[in-house]
Design goal:
This protein is α+β, with helices and mostly antiparallel strands and 153 residues long. The chain has 5 helices and 7 strands, in the order αββββαβββααα. The strands form 2 sheets. Strands 4-1-6-5 form a 4-stranded mixed β-sheet, with helices on both faces. Helix 3 packs antiparallel against helix 4 (131-144). It is globular.
Length: 153
């Protein structure tokens, strides 16, 4: 099935609800993916995640997308908030970010063809990412550097 038709069939009326995940290993490194040529001629760098299917809640979508795209299992999940932006491919997007501790070995789906485990700082400095995805990593880093009393609110 054509990828665009598959995407359009699964989404609700605009705006599309999309989840993106900062997948964190036990050593603190995060997962950066590269989109395959099937998805992106330019092979953009990406975070795990995708469109929330009809009838699915965002937490379910986060678990499903992480497992489908990477083969990793979520052990803990926390919200990084949400933002909105325009996507040339699907129009208006409501993006919901999550930080997730993960376990297992990466097994990429057809959507991605390469991955890296990097520090959050390396992700920000060495990888070109869409602005909303970069902002999620920045928010994650900001939360890491807050004193515990500020992060528990």
């Amino acid at each position: 099935m054509n990828v665009v038709k598959q995407i359009l069939k699964s989404i609700q009326a605009p705006p599309a609800n999309v989840v993106k995940i900062i997948a964190v290993r036990q050593d603190g490194k995060i997962l950066i993916l590269r989109r395959s040529r099937v998805i992106s001629i330019t092979r953009q760098n990406d975070l795990p995640g995708g469109i929330v299917d009809k009838g699915e809640d965002r937490v379910e979508a986060t678990r499903r997308e992480t497992e489908e795209e990477t083969g990793l299992k979520l052990t803990k999940l926390g919200s990084l908030g949400n933002t909105s932006f325009w996507s040339a491919a699907i129009g208006p997007v409501d993006l919901f970010g999550y930080v997730c501790e993960v376990e297992g070995k990466v097994k990429l789906s057809w959507e991605h063809d390469k991955y890296w485990w990097v520090t959050p700082q390396e992700a920000l400095e060495k990888f070109q990412l869409r602005k909303p995805y970069k902002a999620l990593i920045e928010k994650y880093v900001e939360n890491l550097t807050k004193p515990a009393s500020q992060t528990s609110r």
